[in-house]
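In the laboratory, one determines a bound structure by crystallizing the protein with its ligand and collecting diffraction data. In a computational setting the workflow is compressed into a single prediction: the sequence and the ligand go in, and a structural description comes out. We illustrate the idea with tryptophan.
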Amino acid sequence: MKRVLSGIQPSGNLTLGNYIGAMKNFVKLQHDHQCYFMVVDLHAITVPQEPAALHEQTETVAALFLAAGIDPAKASVFLQSHVSAHAELGWLMTTLVYMGELERMTQFKDKSEGKESVGAGLFTYPALMAADILLYNADLVPVGDDQKQHLEITRDLAHRFNKRFGEQFIVPEPYIPQVGARIMSLDDASKKMSKSNPNPGSSIALLDEPDVIRKKISRAVTDSGREIKYDPANKPEVSNLMSIYSHCADLSIAEIEAKYDGLGYGPFKKDLAEAVVGALEPLQQRYRDIRSSGELRTILRQGAEQASVIANETLRGVKEKMGFVKP
Ligand code: AMP
Ligand code: TRP
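The predicted complex, in structure-token form:
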């Protein structure tokens, strides 16, 4: 069975972008792959986090994984900080990655822009992400389009290690959705929908109340035309809403175009809002059930135990190849 690994940072409220770009594929892949899904809390602290908020958000994201449909009987769900091999291989990868490679990362440029001081961890972030993936010898990494560059570094590091120290790592492939790989902000279709955008109207959070979702969609920016046509270059706002609709209502883009032919934005937005509410309501109900059941801790502990077996075995092989003395 092929291996799959992915992670999401507990750095704010997860959005529909996270769901469509990544989590929907987690759920899809779990049926016929050996899957590892983690909350990457060590990555979240590459920008300052308030401890109580980090704690709460970490549990929220883990519960959302389960609420979205990840089945702990099929996939290992865990916290990155519970498997210490991540930090250790992360360091080893930091010594292999080049400054020039890190300097090219657009996520680093975006996140450091305009900041007076930036932690070194934000810069070396891709080395830890490479460690996350390579520890499990993952074949596939389900992510949104914005992570392609980090995957490229991971692939380069896998090749570099194998060449320098001997065959160790599988070179992973990104697994990116065809529609919705980059869900854009509702207020500005030139920016990706992001949990760290300070304007709450720019994104739909997975835990937004139905009426909040309806309001956000009714206020979403559209162009001045009235045609429901998928044309990301000329109609980026409407095309973005169509991608969201396609995922939430399980309709193809062509089916949506046909359905709203000649109808204008009003009815389209109304139906879109109900499609999003309909897709998120069961998830929100399951989320509340999971949080109140108290089962989360047990699931995360079991997930970390399963993950540690694989991760420690890889780390042992890596250290031996690099010449570290065995304990
Ligand atoms: P992050 O929120 O940066 O931890 O991202 C977690 C996962 O969600 C990654 O695989 C991202 O590529 C994906 N993702 C985040 N925002 C979006 C978006 N607006 N559209 C599509 N995928 C996204
Ligand atoms: N860098 C990813 C993001 O910002 C999160 C991440 C960390 C990740 N480690 C990973 C994603 C390993 C996939 C695999 O979204």
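The chain has two domains: 3-176+294-322, 200-287. Keep in mind that any predicted model is a hypothesis to be tested, not a measurement.
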